[in-house]
Amino acid sequence: MLLWALGRVEELGWPVGMCDVPHLVELVKPFEGSSELVTGGTLRPASEILDEQDLIMRVHWAVRDAWLKGHMVPEHLDWSEGGEPVDVSECAAVGVVEQRHHALNWLVRFLDADWDEVDTPT
């Protein structure tokens, strides 16, 4: 999330899978021991970050709503690749959505919370 906010990653993509960790390591590795990763980045406009936060809050709401009602994962978040629908409690995409929501709320200091007390209400 921080790499995206600093313009080091072009797009976040739809939250249906884990990030490409080896790719991110390669992006970060040249900056090891340096502050250039942060100081040399260009922070995206606040409106773009807030739009992404709003979108992920709505996606997280859809996932939580499905869980509370005992429904399957919303189709556009389903990792089953055309197989049987996946129960929300068994879908890894749910964790991706939750973590992205948490990271964006941390980034914008949602409710002015400290980093270890960031909430993700829907």
Describe the overall structure.
15% of the residues are buried. This protein is 46% helix and 0% strand. Helix 4 runs antiparallel to helix 5. The protein has 122 residues and is mainly alpha-helical. It has one domain (2-117). It has helices at residues 2-5, 21-28, 36-39, 46-69, 92-107. The chain is built from 5 helices and no strands. This is DUF4272 domain-containing protein. InterPro entries: DUF4272 (IPR025368). Pfam families: DUF4272. It comes from Tautonia plasticadhaerens.
In short:
The chain is mainly alpha-helical and 122 residues long. The protein has 5 helices and no strands. The protein has one domain (2-117).
Average pLDDT confidence is 88
C-alpha Rg (nearest Å):
16 Å
Largest sheet: none
Shape: globular
Q: What is the CA-CA span between the terminal residues?
A: 20 Å
Number of structural units classed as domains? 1
DSSP helix fraction = 40-55%
β-strand percent reads: under 5%
Number of distinct beta strands: 0
Structural class designation: mainly alpha
User: Count of helical segments?
Assistant: 5
Given as residue ranges, the uncertain stretches (5+ residues, pLDDT < 50) are: none
User: Helix and strand succession?
Assistant: HHHHH
